Amino acid sequence: MNGVIMFSLPLRDDARLRPLEIWHAEEFAAHMDRAREHIRPWVGPAFVTDDLDGARGTLRRYAERQAADGARLYGIWLDGMLVGGVMFVNFDAAFGSCEIGCWLEPAAEGRGLITQASRTLLDWAFTDRGLHRAEWHCRADNERSSAVAERLGMTLEGVRRESWPYGGTRHDKQIWAILASEWRAHRP
Ligand SMILES: CC(C)(COP(=O)(O)OP(=O)(O)OC[C@H]1O[C@@H](n2cnc3c(N)ncnc32)[C@H](O)[C@@H]1OP(=O)(O)O)[C@@H](O)C(=O)NCCC(=O)NCCS
What we know:
alpha+beta, Aminopeptidase, 8-stranded mixed sheet, 8 strands, binds coenzyme A, Acyl_CoA_acyltransferase, RimJ/RimL family protein N-acetyltransferase, transferase, Ribosomal_N-acetyltransferase
């Protein structure tokens, strides 16, 4: 239990956000068993792994990129169970720009966990790191995801047409973004 309390931020009474690291591989693989088919249509294919080695590979990839001040991965624990998370899919301090992504297993949807966790990442990117812009990319028909971007105060900047191949179809991809000045004005 101490491990859950340390190095984590409360999202609500029953939920916490903390770095998702290689030592969580077994927990992450078990979570992926609950999340896999739910997230598969909506996230990058490399994130949808089938076994412990695959889960460990995702965590290692993020750890290596974090070591270079790039991508970062954070898990959300609800009642002590890993149920999803948020990440910097890209993080480029020199360019002043990042992209945030997210996922949940079905039982954790509808509680505001992703909106709140994403706000923590935006605050860190804009306030602590001085970034200028944060993006959010989603399939144009991913209504739950675009609803999060909207709740965060992001603007839909455009659509990359037929840029997301899945299941034999090429789907449109929305690009949402928020600027640091807009975040400061919008921040709850
Ligand atoms: C996208 C995804 C993470 C969104 O999850 P979500 O639970 O809808 O998002 P949030 O955690 O922000 O919760 C918002 C919901 O909680 C409700 N809610 C409850 N308390 C809330 C609070 N304090 N703040 C905000 N929302 C709250 C909202 O009303 C909303 O519910 P509704 O959609 O029924 O109106 C989830 O649907 C998912 O994992 N989908 C598959 C993978 C995926 O698409 N990933 C993103 C790829 S771009």
